[in-house]
Write a structure and sequence with these properties.
Structural class: alpha/beta
Oligomer: single chain
Distance between the termini: 57 Å
Length: 415
C-alpha cells in the first residue's frame, strides 16, 4: 500500500502501529531440542524443562524415540506443509471456495500429539483441521478433494475446509463455531470414562482412553470453555484441553485480548504445562504426561502449545496488517518445526541431507497427484444432500420440489 492515502488513513495506520503486539518467544524461554543420544534404531532427544502449573511435569528432559518414529514424523510434517501450500494456491486459483484456515507452522503440535497418544483417543478441534485429518490417517487426495467440494473428499464434499471428520480414527472435526468443540470434547471424555467403567463412577476412576479438545488462544476466554472445564473437573473427566497459542486471535494479539496470557494457568484448579509447540518432542513428552494423568482418573489437564501460524487467520487475511514481515520471517528462521526436526534427524544419523531432499521430492509428487485428483473428482450426486443427516435415510422430505416449497424432487430418496 506504500505511503499513499488521505491524512486520515495515514493517521489510522500510525495509530495501529503503536498498538501493543505480541511476538512469539525467540529466546531461551521457548524450549528447544538441544542434544541427542543414539543406540542403533533407538534414540533420546533432550528438551528444555516445560513450564508447569499445579503439577511437577515430566520427570526427565530426555524424550525416547525410534528411527521409524523420527522419519515418519518428518515425512508427515513435510506432507502437511506441502498440502497447505497447495491449498493456498488452489484457493487463489478459485478452485477452493468459502473459508479456508491453514495450519502451516503448527505441524509439530499435530504430529507430537500423535507421537504421544493412540487412535483410541478422541480428538476434536476447530476449523483449522486439514492437518489433523491427515494425522489421524486420512490421505492428501481425500483432504484436497474435500476442499474442492468433490465426491472423492473425506466427507463426500459436504463438509469442506471446516468440517472434516474421521470417526474410524476417533476424529470428530472440524467445528466452525469458536470454542464450541470444547464441550463436545468433554462429552467425548465422558463417553470414554463411562464405557471403561460401565457407567459413570463418582470421583477418581481410570479410563482406557482420553479426549483432546483443541482450540486457539482466541477461543480461550469463551464462557463455554470455562463451563466445560468446570464440569470436567467436577466429574474427573479424562479430557486434555489443548490451547494452540499461535499468538493471534484472528488479527488481535494475545496481549490485547486476554487478561492472563499464561493460558496453561487459566482454568484453575486444573493443572497445566506450557509447551514449545514448534518442537514435536516437547509436544510428545507433554502429551504422554497429560494422558497418563487423565487415564489414571485425576481429571482434566491443560496443555498450552506455544506455536505460530505463517499464514493469516484465514485465506481472506493477508496476515501482515497486525504483524511485520520481519516477525514472520524471524520465526521461520529461528523456530520452524520442520527445519528443527530435519536437524535432529541428521544429528541422530537417521537420514542425511540428500535423503531428506529425496523425501521432499517424493512428497511434492504425492501432493501434485492429489491436486489433480481434487480437480478431476466428480461433484457429489444430489442424493448426497439427504445422506448422513439421519441414521436412516428418509423416504419423504418436505419442501424439496424447488418450486412451491412442498412435495419432493424427482431425485429425492424414495421418489
Amino acid at each position: 500500500q506504500g505511503e499513499r492515502g488521505s491524512d486520515a488513513n495515514i493517521m489510522l495506520r500510525r495509530s495501529l502501529f503503536l498498538l501493543p503486539r505480541t511476538v512469539a518467544p525467540r529466546t531461551a524461554a521457548a524450549a528447544r531440542s538441544m542434544s541427542v543420544k543414539v543406540d542403533g534404531d533407538n534414540a533420546e532427544v533432550e528438551i528444555s524443562p516445560l513450564q508447569a502449573y499445579k503439577t511437577e511435569g515430566p520427570a526427565s528432559t530426555w524424550v525416547k524415540t525410534t528411527k521409524d518414529e523420527v522419519l515418519s514424523s518428518l515425512y508427515d510434517m513435510i506432507v502437511m506443509r506441502r498440502m497447505e501450500i497447495a491449498a493456498d494456491l488452489m484457493y487463489k486459483s478459485q478452485l477452493i471456495k468459502g473459508f479456508c484456515h491453514l495450519y502451516d507452522g503448527q505441524e509439530a503440535v499435530a504430529i507430537g500429539m500423535e507421537m504421544g497418544c493412540t487412535k483410541k483417543d478422541a480428538i476434536v478441534t476447530s476449523y483449522r483441521d486439514h492437518c489433523l485429518q491427515y494425522s489421524r490417517g486420512d490421505t492428501v487426495k481425500r483432504i484436497l478433494a474435500e476442499l474442492t467440494g468433490k465426491s472423492g473428499g473425506c466427507t463426500a464434499g459436504k463438509g469442506g475446509s471446516m468440517h472434516m471428520y474421521r470417526s474410524e480414527a476417533n476424529f470428530y472435526g472440524g467445528n466452525g463455531i469458536v470454542g464450541a468443540q470444547v464441550p463436545l470434547g468433554a462429552g467425548l471424555a465422558f463417553a470414554a470414562k463411562y464405557k471403561t467403567n460401565n457407567g459413570l463412577p463418582r470421583g477418581q476412576a481410570a479410563s482406557d482412553a482420553v479426549a483432546f479438545a483443541m482450540y486457539g488462544d482466541g477461543a480461550a476466554n469463551q464462557g463455554q470453555v470455562f463451563e466445560a472445564a468446570n464440569m470436567a473437573y467436577l466429574w474427573k473427566l479424562p479430557i486434555i484441553l489443548v490451547i494452540e497459542n499461535n499468538q493471534y486471535g484472528m488479527g488481535t494479539s494475545t496481549l490485547r485480548a486476554s487478561s492472563n496470557v499464561d493460558f496453561y494457568t487459566k482454568y484453575d484448579p486444573l493443572p497445566g504445562l506450557k509447551v514449545d509447540g514448534m518442537d514435536c518432542f516437547s509436544v510428545k513428552a507433554a502429551t504422554e504426561f497429560a494422558r497418563k494423568h487423565c487415564m489414571d482418573g485425576h481429571g482434566p489437564f491443560v496443555l498450552e502449545m506455544n506455536t505460530y501460524r505463517y499464514h493469516g487467520h484465514s485465506m481472506s487475511d493477508p496476515g501482515l496488517t497486525y504483524r511485520s514481515r520481519d516477525e514472520v520471517s524471524g520465526i521461520r528462521k529461528e523456530r520452524d518445526p520442520i527445519d528443527k526436526l530435519k536437524r535432529i534427524t541428521m544429528e541422530l544419523g537417521f537420514m542425511d541431507e540428500a535423503g531428506i531432499k529425496k523425501m521432499e521430492k517424493e512428497v511434492r509428487g504425492l501432493v501434485d497427484e492429489a491436486v489433480e485428483f481434487s480437480k478431476t473428482s466428480p461433484d457429489p450426486d444430489l442424493n448426497e444432500m439427504y445422506t448422513q443427516v439421519l441414521v436412516d435415510n428418509p423416504t419423504y422430505i418436505r419442501g424439496t420440489d424447488g418450486i412451491y416449497g412442498h412435495g419432493k424432487c424427482s431425485w429425492a430418496p424414495g421418489a
